[in-house]
Structures are given as structure tokens and as C-alpha cells.
Amino acid sequence: MISPFLLAALCLLLSIIYKPFEINPDALLQWNASPPRILLLTAHPDDECFFFAPTILALQRSSLSPEIFSLCLSTGNADGMGERRKGELGRSLDILGVDEDKRWIIEHPQLQDNMTQQWEAEVIAEVVRPFVTEHHITSVLTFDMKGISSHPNHFSLPVGASHLVKSLSSSANTSVPRLFSLTTVSVLPKYTGMSSALFARLTLASQSFSVSEPTVDSLPVFISGIPDYLTTVRAILAHDSQMVWFRYLYMTFSRYMWVNEWVEFKT
Ligand SMILES: [Zn+2]
């Protein structure tokens, strides 16, 4: 039988983490763009929900009403399931709220899903360029140089996107997007699951006592609440070709199911 004390503690925990929590979410957006146009740049179908869901879901609540686009640079064909995975990505993005006309998946001979291959920055820049320019993208969101899981396809992306931003900066008549990367945390905190949502909130709340208002330079942090977490689980389950046993462990223990921290990538 559960003691009243434990039951009360559980209710308190659930009430604390039920609602989403964000610090400076609009720092990812260009304030002078109306609406801001955000491009999520990923390497494989399932990256969008395994790693970026807290941000995708939170940005849709922003008062700046950003338009959110998704560009995935491979079909994830390492096991010959690329065609199937394209459909899974579509269903996942439906659940995460990215419109059908704002999402694309690339099939390129030099951008193949491969655990040992780093993609060339020049190739990434050339492939991404038309999507950025034609849709007037104002911010690009992608992995950092550790790629969360150290997958070389992942950490190729900030290098390629940075190459593109530099190239756009040097050409006149083109607006240049800002580039942000999702912070890779070390192994131990990476698998703290629901408790990561609690500790991240407590840390940010204690900081907000000492700093009255987040400045425009504060790093954006997105912490999912329980409804967002459940939406993320549904999006992951849409990738049914990937649902081996350790994916269930991932959903239970990964910090990225709950917390996303961003830094601007200096090009
Ligand atoms: Zn991936």
C-alpha cells in the first residue's frame, strides 16, 4: 500500500512538471522578421522527435507565431528502409504540428545514413541553400559539434549550415539566417529522464530569483510538460520501423524527451 506521504510527494512532483517551462524562447527567433521562419535541420527521420520535440512544441506557442519548417537530409536508408521511413517522418511531423507543405526529405548520393561517415560541408550547404533562400528562413536549428549521440551525420550539420551562413553573408541582396545548435550534455545527465525536467526547472527558477528578467543574451531553454512529453512519445511511436527495445528505454530515460538547451553557433 502506498503511504500518504509518498502519494503526496508524487502528486507534488507531477504538478510541478505538468506544465511546460521556458526561458527566453524567443531568443531563437528574429524579432524583426514577421513571422520568424525557423528551419529545423536534421540528418535522419526520427531526429525530430528523439532530440528536438521540446523546442518544436514550445515554439508553436510563441506569441511571435513563427513558421516552422523541417528539412531532413537523408531517408535513413542504412538498413534499406528509406521508403518506409519517409512515411514515418511524415506521420511524426503531423503529430508535432509541422505542416505538410513545410517539410522536405532529401535523397542525395553523398548524404547517406552512415554511422561512420561525416558529410561534406560544401554538399550540405549546397543542398540546404535553396530551402533557406526561397523560404526566407530567419533561424536554422540543428545539432552541435557533438551531435547528441556522436553520430557523424549529426555533427556534420552545424559545419555545413555554418558554411552556408558564411557564404550567404558574403553575397549581397540575401538575408542571412542565425544558426543555433542543440547542446549535447554529458553521458550521466543525458539519461535522467523525467527528473531532468524537475532539476532543470529548479535550476532555472533559482537563477530567475537572482536575475529579474532574462536578457536577450540568455540561452534559450525549453522544458516539456507532461502533455508535450506524451505528444513526443506518440511522434516516436510513428517510427515503427525503429521501435526496438532500447527505444522504449530511450523514451523513459532520455533528457531530450524533456529538455532542450540552445546556443548560437558562431560562424
Ligand atoms: Zn539521427
TrEMBL record:
Annotated SUPFAM superfamilies: LmbE-like
Gene Ontology cellular component list: endoplasmic reticulum; membrane
Organism: Rhizopogon vinicolor AM-OR11-026
Major enzyme class: hydrolase
EC numbers: 3.5.1.89
Protein name: N-acetylglucosaminylphosphatidylinositol deacetylase
Position of the signal peptide: 1-22
GO MF term list: N-acetylglucosaminylphosphatidylinositol deacetylase activity
Keyword RNA-binding: no
Keywords from the UniProt entry: Signal
Classification via InterPro entries: GlcNAc_PI_deacetylase-related, LmbE-like_dom_sf
Alphabetical GO biological process terms: GPI anchor biosynthetic process
Domain of life (superkingdom): Eukaryota
